[in-house]
Amino acid sequence: MPASAQDDFLSITGLEKIYPSRAGAILAIKDVSLCVGTAEFVSLLGPSGCGKSTLLRLADAKTVLFVTHSITEAVFLADKIIIMSPSPGRVIDTMTVELPRPRRLAVRETQDFTRYVARIRTIFEGFGMLRGTHVHE
Ligand SMILES: Nc1ncnc2c1ncn2[C@@H]1O[C@H](COP(=O)(O)OP(=O)(O)OP(=O)(O)O)[C@@H](O)[C@H]1O
Ligand SMILES: [Mg+2]
Q1: pLDDT per residue over 90-126, tens digit each?
Q2: Which is the most buried residue in 16, 18, 123, 137, by most CB within 10 A?
Q3: In testing the pocket of ligand 1, which one of 22, 54, 67, 91 has its CB within 8 Å of the most ligand atoms?
Q4: Distance CA 71, CA 83 (A)
Q5: Is pTM beyond 0.85 here?
Q6: Which residues line ligand 1 (CB under 6 A)?
């Protein structure tokens, strides 16, 4: 997280979105808080239906949040990864990726890279994900 709030390009606190539907209210995202620094590349990672598109629409921040289902893609690209739970989407972890830049493809074979991927995989496995969902390595 940036040292000062003044460095934040985007700051969201306690965001919730409920879609009305004929079958009843759909809680799409719940208590989502996040911040994005001015020069920060942030990946939003989570399974299908967890509310990534909803969050993008509400934040109107399409250029600063990169949405992906791929753990390795998120780690390769991001300075910070916002990890979301299955629906209703909550932020379950925020991980700073301290791999040096520029990142060449070979970084994917380093221990540091593998550790980041394993940490995220473990988080998703804890939610019973990775099988039959759209998050993958
Ligand atoms: N316009 C809408 N009306 C009702 N429910 C909606 C609407 N848009 C999204 N939802 C519901 O809100 C939840 C979050 O959907 P959203 O599309 O934001 O997820 P997502 O993470 O972008 O999924 P994907 O990875 O498949 O793109 C889902 O349960 C979805 O069915
Ligand atoms: Mg989407």
Answers
A1: 999 999 999 999 999 999 999 999 999 999 999 998 8
A2: 123
A3: 54
A4: 10
A5: yes
A6: 19, 21, 26, 28, 46, 48-54, 87, 134
Between the alpha carbon of residue 101 and those of residues 54, 67, 79, 82, the distances in Å are 31, 20, 10, 20
What percent of the chain stands above pLDDT 70? 92
HSE toward the beta carbon, residue 125, CA cutoff 13 A: 7
What the block records as the tokens of 91 is 């932020």
Asked if the model's pLDDT at residue 132 lies above 60, the reply is: no
For the CA of 89, the nearest atom of ligand 1? 14
**C-beta of residue 72 within 8 angstroms of C-beta of residue 117:** yes
CB-count burial class (<10 Å; 0-12, 13-18, 19+) for 14 = exposed
